[in-house]
Amino acid sequence: MKSFVIHMQGDQRRAANAQTLLDVLPQAQIMPAVIGRDVVAAGAVSVRPGDLFHPRYPFALGPGEIGCFLSHRACWQAIVDQDLDHALIAEDDMAVTPEAWRDVLALVTAHATADSFIRIPAKDRETPAQTVDATGQARLFVPRVIGLQTVCQVVGRAAAQRLLDASETLDRPVDTFLQMHWVTQQIVHTILPNGVRELTDELGGSTIQKKTRTSGKLAREIRRAIYRAQVNLRPQRV
């Protein structure tokens, strides 16, 4: 299995961890991160104000979120172009615990196909709708509601093509897009526990985090809660 590590060239804060991932992950190579502000300035991306799909996404996409989405699309395209059955995609602030990671790879080896999208998240926030298999402590399951964040996932070739087809225009961040199985027609699996951690704070903070004025935080949290409630009304069914 091949691995792609999304990394912004020249980011010295994350360079050492990116190199560690190249050593740890199977057949790993760097996938240069897309600089969102450059793509936006060049008019090279089609973006809508959260109204392309339902439920409507209540926040404008920032350049960092656009760059993150396009970086994942570049990985999906590489999987298709290289005719890979499936590949692992990791962000450069990921770290793994070796013992738990062996169980994760065993489940991936046993179950990943060209149709797969398997999340390997850093946060345990998903409730199983159906458990598929287990190795050691790690469980492969279909989550009722797909979680957020994209630190690590295994994506099959057919799944990558479905995601590419559904995301030619962007209207929300990549992790919220991936929650919308009713749009992508992609079943999503999750492996937890998995030994994956995010080193975001240790490596200088998020590259896409937005600053919100104190006066606007309450309104933003209310809109976020309403959006999440709408997503929760569309669980994966097995």
Pick out its properties.
38% helix, Spore Coat Polysaccharide Biosynthesis Protein SpsA, Chain A, 10 strands, two-stranded antiparallel ribbon, alpha/beta, 238 residues, 21% strand
Strand order of the largest sheet: 2-1-3-8-5-9-7-6
Sheet with the most strands, sense and barrel status:
8 strands, mixed
Helix content: 25-40%
CATH topology tier name: Spore Coat Polysaccharide Biosynthesis Protein SpsA, Chain A
- Beta-strand residue fraction: 15-25%
Oligomer: single chain
Number of helices: 8
Strand/helix succession: EHEHHEEHEEEEHHHEEH
Please characterize this protein's 3D structure.
The chain has 238 residues and is an alpha/beta fold. The protein has 8 helices and 10 strands. Helices cover 38% and strands 21% of the residues. The strands form 2 sheets. An 8-stranded mixed β-sheet has the order 2-1-3-8-5-9-7-6, sandwiched between helices. A two-stranded antiparallel ribbon has the order 4-10. Strand 1 (2-7), helix 1 and strand 2 form a beta-alpha-beta unit. Helix 3 (63-81) packs across helix 5. The two termini are 27 Å apart.
Structure at a glance:
This protein is of the alpha/beta class. It has a single domain, classed as Alpha-Beta Complex (Spore Coat Polysaccharide Biosynthesis Protein SpsA, Chain A). It has helices spanning 12-24, 36-41, 63-81, 98-111, 157-166, 174-179, 181-184, 214-232; strands spanning 2-7, 28-32, 86-91, 94-96, 117-119, 128-135, 138-143, 152-156, 189-192, 196-198.
Helices and strands in order:
Layout lengths: L1 E6 L4 H13 L3 E5 L3 H6 L21 H19 L4 E6 L2 E3 L1 H14 L5 E3 L8 E8 L2 E6 L8 E5 H10 L7 H6 L1 H4 L4 E4 L3 E3 L15 H19 L6
Parallel strand pairs: 1-2, 1-3, 5-9
Antiparallel strand pairs: 3-8, 4-10, 5-8, 6-7, 7-9
Helix pairs in contact: 3-5
